[in-house]
Amino acid sequence: FGGGRSGAAMMDGTGSARREDVGASMPPPPPRVPRLGVPLPQTSAPWGPRVPTPRPGATRRDSGTNATTTTTAIRSSTEFDFEKGVEVGHEEHAVPCKRISSEADVRKFLGSATCGDYVSFVKCLCGKLAGAKVTEVEAEGGLSEPLAKVREALAAVSAIVDEVPPREHNMRYGNPAFRDWHDLLCQRAEGLVSAVLPESQRGASRELAYYFSDSFGNRTRIDYGTGHETNFFVFLFCLAKLGLVPEGDSKALVLCVFNDYLKLMRRIQRTYGLEPAGSRGCWGLDDYQMLPFLFGAAQLVGHPLIKPKIVHNPDFVEAFAKDFLYFGCVEYVLQVKKGSLGETSPMLNDISAVGRWQKVSTGMLKMYEGEVLSKLPIVQHLGFGSLFRWEE
Predict the structure, then answer these.
(1) Distance (Å, rounded) from C-alpha 136 to C-alpha 79?
(2) Closest by alpha carbon to 297, among 330, 340, 260?
(3) Is residue 298 within 8 Å of residue 361, measured between CB atoms?
(4) CA 339 to chain centre
(5) Which helix (H) or strand (E) holds 250?
(6) Burial 42-52 (b: 16+ CB within 10 A, else e)
(7) CA 191 to CA 348: how far, in whole Å?
(8) Predicted TM-score (pTM) of this structure
(9) Has residue 50 got a pLDDT over 50?
(10) What is the rounded CA–CA span in Å between residue 151 and residue 312?
């Protein structure tokens, strides 16, 4: 499933070849440090190398991965109507199907109202996170019933990990027990999603279960990337389109519900050794995720004391990791990779030199639009139904 070493990754939908020379208990090796003189791959972020701005509808070829990026502008805003639910008859809900198979389809998707509405949803949430802390939002409680049940569903998915322990095997990545775990997940997904929905809207269970079950990695390749992460956020977007996410729950949607998902995925990654799905190696943000960096930067916009450069101080990273998603992500990178950020994560290192969190947040959004939503190997796996619609 296209997606991988965070937002700047995800070029290869097939994943890289598995190695069979090291036991499964060993963590992935630190990424190879780029050689001097090797150019940084082009990205959509402002801290990347300057590249000519192509005309709308054009494509460019990435110098680091030889993959094509479509450059159609996304029509979005910072507003999202949480009160306006989509009215879909019980009989009109359908299991989503894939509709993107070419760069022309990517351009159509990027220019669609569906993509614009989805990006507006993401931007609106970012706008509500400034100054919010995870621990404070958790302490407030009072989640709406549907979101509280999403958390219960994620806890049930975590319990499946306890049911299916990893097996002994001789590959660095990809414990085959993940396939058994994924089979159980798919068997139970519709029931878990049905429990989230009020009785009057349970006709949408199969449609939403498609996104939910595809949020935790690929069964065949035993990998995970930003495409799967996007599927989970499309699932949350669909709940919002059904009118089940009150605007007052915006902060909790990210800092509680999505954070639960993030913690669960880290557990699954480590338990079953999921391979990053198509990667840029050390030129990514981290091996798998993109959105927590975006939301984490949005939390810190306007903060009077915390600056991007303090990611180089492990004590500060540890102190802020529980409250701010960005530092939680950096802490995780430091735990799983050996070496300084300059050695293992040059992009994170470059971002630390940016003076303001507003610029980091804006750059992360551009990366998400340009390196996730605009990449054919990723969005070709998205499904479209009655809530996340394909527009002819």
Answers:
(1) 24
(2) 330
(3) yes
(4) 25
(5) helix 250-252
(6) bbbbebbeeee
(7) 40
(8) 0.83
(9) no
(10) 33
- CB 301: neighbour CB atoms within 10 A? 18
Instruction: Check whether 286 has a pLDDT greater than 90.
Output: no
Distances from the Cα of 266 to the Cα of 229, 230, 357, angstroms = 12, 16, 25
The DSSP element (H or E) to which 206 belongs, if any, is helix 205-213
**The tokens of 385 are what?**
């139904």
Contacts of 241 (CB under 8 A, 6+ apart): 85, 86, 387, 388
Q: Which residues pair with 276 in a beta bridge?
A: 224
Lowest mean pLDDT among 51-60, 222-231, 318-327: 51-60
Euclidean distance between CA atoms 60 and 45, whole angstroms: 15
Residue partners of 81: CB distance under 8 A and separation at least 6: none
The C-alpha atoms of residue 204 and residue 8 are separated, in whole angstroms, by 33
Q: Which amino acid is at 172?
A: R
Q: Is the dihedral of CA 5, 320, 362, 233 positive or negative?
A: positive
In one-letter notation, the amino acid at residue 201 is: Q
Answer positive or negative: Cα dihedral of 200, 202, 208, 213.
positive
Report residue 297 as tokens.
């930067």
> Tokens at residue 60, please?
């460019």
Report whether 276 contacts 1 (CB < 8 A). no
